[in-house]
Amino acid sequence: MAGSGDALRALLRAANALLQQRRYRAALAVLKGFRNGAVYGAKIRAPHALVMTFLFKSGSLREKLKSIAQATYTHSRNLAYFVFTYKGLMALQSQLQGKKIPFHSFFAACIGGWLVFGENNPINSQIIMYLLSRILFALSRLAVEKGYIPQPKQDPFPLVAALIWGTVLWLFEYHRQTLQPSLQSSMTYLYDDSNVWHDISDFLLYNKRTDSK
Prior knowledge:
Elements: H1 2-19, H2 25-56, H3 61-97, H4 102-117, H5 122-145, H6 157-174, H7 181-192, H8 201-205
């Protein structure tokens, strides 16, 4: 037992010594990026998939749990692959050119986005739409900071909120098929299901009556 403990401590010391080597820092950063991508993807997707599955999906408990596990795995895997690809290409470009320039980030992310998130599936679609909304806000702020557009005299957020809600409800009412499925499910619950009830049970207690009266 003592021998195995000594061997383990020696292995840990060797691993820690390796992690302190500057010449391996770029490669190790790529590996830790893979680890962080996998962990973060699981942390983000698991609770979201749990809530959405039990709120809006039908099926047995086993089917629901399988759906949650699959969504969590896909999100975790894709984010891990993307971070690994992005950081690897960043390190390679910096090594080849001897310095880091802004185009490196754009190019590496484009390649990673194409390879990892290029498949049109529900998970990737949600991630891309999440990023798109934040990009639009960020580019608007950047345009003001750089002086490309004047600083608004009043906060434009109320107008943005009004236009976004007006547009999304118009699409839901008249072009529902164009919206992403999870958004359709959420809005159906809020705006369509609230139009239907039979008695106090499915008016206050439940969304839909499960028995056949």
